């Protein structure tokens, strides 16, 4: 059963431009659903329309199969966690956690019980009498989570809840939030601009740009089968390497600025409708040394080498574009030296030079992967 449905949801603040345009998706019960995209793409607007904090300009919102466009926030049965935690500085942790329940007139004994449970779940038992200013950033974040937990709402909306935390704590809280969501079985809609959070936390991801939905899918679907150039470069770090190439139909090949030639099949040429294409290759698909038959070989001058301990990032120019290769292990190579690299044509993405839609992407089959995993786990 779908829990939350958006049907061509639109929002305009100024009656002339769309902050959100025609967003359509069904979110399942118990799903961890992520809205991701660059700043200003409309993520918070969608979340706030679902919460009832922002009016809906056009389209329909359904919660539990009931039209919810005009329900008050309090009638929507959801909890919300904001980026700035929205804690009351003059109230104790306990009072902050219970604030919503008091407003809802939940009985005192029940309040106490729920608070104790939530505090235990989030490791706040010893901090209940403190004020927010006496807590670390991570602890404050947990108070905000505890407030969502005690509400007992079957769905929770979170707007960039981790962006004020340092990198290590963020990693830790990612796991904690995901575990909490599984344990409580709640439906989560989670907003982030961080593609790592999207990839690691979500059951499914919606990628947005300029108020428009670019793609909805599982993290691996989005990573392996991006629908267009924007999704391909937004998801993945370092991002997919991209260069523009001219299509030489006579000789079935793609020509890049630095005289690099990529041979492709006649069938592939036929699929390309434009005169130019963007070629894309992920950094981890670029290998050291000369390749084998259907591989593209080239020699590049390294412009930067970043040894990260367990992997090495190498930068070099392809025409005017900086590309990166990611190799496992430690490769403290000299800058400016010529290095042989290669990639397999099978791993190449091609995007239409005009529409930027994906024309060709490497073979990837999720069902095969699932079968392999299920055989292995037997
Ligand atoms: N209250 C508002 N009044 C006018 N414009 C707004 C308001 N809130 C957001 N916007 C505009 O709507 C667009 C989407 O904003 P928002 O949903 O906050 O994006 P995100 O959360 O993805 O960063 C932006 O162009 C932003 O400037
Ligand atoms: Mg926002």
From TrEMBL:
Gene3D superfamilies: 2.40.50.100, Nucleic acid-binding proteins, P-loop containing nucleotide triphosphate hydrolases. It comes from the Bacteria. One of its GO terms (molecular function) is ATP binding. The lineage of its organism: Bacteria, Bacillati, Bacillota, Bacilli, Bacillales. GO terms for cellular component: ATP-binding cassette (ABC) transporter complex, substrate-binding subunit-containing. Residues 4-235 form the ABC transporter domain. SMART domains: AAA. NCBIfam families: PRK11650.1. The keyword Ribosomal protein does not apply. Pfam families: ABC_tran (PF00005), OB_MalK (PF17912). Keywords: ATP-binding, Cell membrane, Membrane, Nucleotide-binding, Translocase, Transport. This is ABC transporter related protein. The keyword Ribosomal protein does not apply. InterPro entries: AAA+_ATPase, ABC_transporter-like_ATP-bd, ABC_transporter-like_CS, ABC_transpr_MalK/UgpC-like, Mo/tungstate-bd_C_term_dom, NA-bd_OB-fold, OB_MalK-like, P-loop_NTPase.
């Amino acid at each position: 059963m779908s829990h939350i449905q958006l049907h061509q949801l639109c929002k305009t603040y100024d009656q002339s431009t769309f902050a959100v345009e025609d967003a359509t998706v069904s979110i399942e019960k118990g799903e961890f659903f992520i809205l991701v995209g660059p700043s200003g793409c409309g993520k918070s607007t969608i979340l706030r329309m679902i919460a009832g904090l922002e009016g809906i300009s056009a389209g329909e919102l359904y919660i539990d199969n009931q039209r919810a466009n005009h329900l008050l926030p309090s009638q929507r049965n959801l909890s919300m966690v904001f980026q700035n935690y929205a804690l009351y500085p003059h109230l104790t942790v306990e009072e902050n956690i219970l604030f919503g329940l008091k407003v809802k007139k939940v009985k005192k004994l029940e309040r106490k019980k729920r608070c104790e449970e939530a505090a235990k779940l989030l490791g706040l038992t010893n901090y209940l009498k403190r004020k927010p200013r006496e807590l670390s950033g991570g602890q404050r974040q947990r108070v905000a989570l505890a407030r969502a937990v005690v509400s007992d709402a079957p769905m929770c909306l979170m707007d960039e809840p981790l962006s004020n935390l340092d990198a290590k704590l963020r990693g830790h809280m990612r796991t904690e939030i995901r575990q909490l969501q599984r344990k409580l079985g709640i439906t989560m809609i989670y907003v982030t601009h961080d593609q790592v959070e999207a990839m690691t936390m979500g059951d499914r991801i919606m990628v947005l740009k300029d108020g428009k939905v670019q793609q909805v899918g599982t993290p691996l679907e989005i990573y392996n089968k991006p629908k267009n150039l924007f999704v391909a470069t937004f998801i993945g770090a370092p991002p997919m390497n991209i260069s523009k190439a001219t299509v030489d139909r006579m000789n079935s090949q793609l020509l890049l600025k630095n005289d690099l030639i990529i041979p492709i099949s006649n069938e592939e040429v036929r699929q390309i409708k434009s005169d130019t294409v963007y070629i894309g290759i992920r950094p981890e698909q670029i290998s050291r040394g000369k390749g084998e038959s259907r591989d593209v070989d080239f020699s590049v001058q390294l412009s930067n080498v970043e040894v990260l301990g367990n992997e090495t990032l190498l930068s070099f120019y392809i025409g005017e574009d900086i590309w990166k290769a990611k190799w496992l292990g430690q490769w403290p190579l000299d800058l400016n030296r010529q290095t042989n690299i290669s990639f397999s044509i099978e791993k190449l993405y091609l995007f239409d030079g005009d529409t930027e839609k994906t024309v060709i992407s490497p073979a990837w089959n999720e069902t095969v992967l699932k079968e392999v995993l299920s055989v292995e786990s037997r």
